[in-house]
Structure formats: C-alpha cells, structure tokens
Design brief:
With 116 residues, this protein is of the alpha+beta class. The chain has one domain. It has 3 helices and 5 strands. A 3-stranded antiparallel sheet has the order 2-1-5, with helices on one face. It has a two-stranded antiparallel ribbon with strand order 3-4. The chain is globular, with a radius of gyration of 14 Å. About 11% of the residues have low confidence.
Length: 116
Amino acid sequence: MERIHYAGTSFLTGDLIARAFVGYARFLSAHRISAAVTIPVRHPDGTTGRANFLLGPTSELVSVSESSDLDSELLDLPLVDELRELTNGMRTGQAGPMLAKPSLDSFTPSELAEMA
C-alpha cells in the first residue's frame, strides 16, 4: 500500500495506483496543465472509498510505502491503465487517452506478479 500526502491530509491506496497517479501528476506539472483525478482509497476503518484530486503545475504530493494490517491491496487496473494512457498519449501529442490497450511490457515483473 502507498500513502499519498496531499493538501495537508493523506490517503491510503494501492501501490500501482499510487505510482500511476504520481507519474501522471509529474507529467501534468511538467507541462503546466491541470486535471481532476479520482482514485480508490482505503479509509482507516478498512472500508474503501474514492478521493478526488485536482492536480496541476503547483500540486505538491508525496507517496510513501506503508504496511497495512488489511488483507487486500487496493487495485483498480482500468484506472492505472487510463492514467498511463493519458500520460503516454499526451507525451506523444495526442489530446486524450489512446485507444490501444497498453502492452504488458509497460509493467515491471513485480507489478505483473502483484496482478496475478
């Protein structure tokens, strides 16, 4: 699990989600653009919910690994794919998400093992 610190508070989410989220935030900042992003989060009582973020050039956030007593990692592979597609699509000059599905080559071996 990863804890994202943002705007004076923090949110617990899955590793893959946090990595894609931070990567997209870094891309937005570098290109001086903003976007609204909603990700799944784990509440302190163990239930899941969603958090909405406005990311932009001045957004400051940190993602920190955190151990959890909870049994399951938060996963939202469609969201991870979408954030990666947006980041990669914008890098290549496309206005929005690419229509092609990302290749499994875009995942590290440990990420693939976590998905299994």
